[in-house]
UniProtKB/TrEMBL annotation:
The keyword tRNA processing does not apply. SMART domains: FCD (SM00895), HTH_GNTR (SM00345). This is GntR family transcriptional regulator. It comes from Pseudomonas edaphica. Pfam families: FCD (PF07729), GntR (PF00392). GO terms for molecular function: DNA binding; DNA-binding transcription factor activity. The lineage of its organism: Bacteria, Pseudomonadati, Pseudomonadota, Gammaproteobacteria, Pseudomonadales. Keywords: DNA-binding, Transcription, Transcription regulation. Residues 2-69 form the HTH gntR-type domain. The keyword Transcription applies.
Amino acid sequence: MSKPGQLVLVALRKMIASGELVAGERLMETPTAQRFGVSRMPVRMAFRTLEQEGLLVPFGGRGYQVRSVSASDIAGAVEVRGVLEGLAARQAAEQGLSDAARAALERCLVEGDQLFEKGYVTEDDLEVYHDLNMRFHQVIVEGSHNPAITDALARNDHLPFASVTALAVDREDMAREYRRFNYAHMQHHSVFDALVNRQGARAEAIMREHANATLRYAEIFSSTTADARMKVILPAS
């Protein structure tokens, strides 16, 4: 895919994941090309890719429509992510962490400890957590030295909330969010302990359970209150 097509593809993915493009919204080539300042060909290629990923569906022979994503769709993708990341953790533990990987994970743990020690979190704090959480998971996946896991995660991660790169925050209950993310951080400590002690089965079980923390947000995302209630944190451009 050309560079303009890739830029359009990434932008549209983010707009769908954040809810800026809502389920059922119609997308046409010409208006989208004008919006991004590109020709119609990059937009056409981006639309086709998003259709293959399950984010867009053809609409009436002309253009596309943002696919309606149900709670069960998200839950299924999250479960698959848990299996894949659990496998990555087991293989990383069995092979042993490199010094660089261990140091990177330790930095994430220290940053998280500092974030949660005050007993509450703000939305800005969770932006920081989002970054360290992505790094923590990435190091584990890379530590498996298994490209098939990386490829499978990339295919699975396009649905909203299915990917570790999209963090859903319930702005109506930040006290609960503190408890949820602090617990997730404690799971990071536990999986790190399993990794350094080369306890593959334990590392796998913790990572699979870790993914399940997302499942409640599948229901919120598909509800009518999602727009007002949820904030979706995505990677910086």
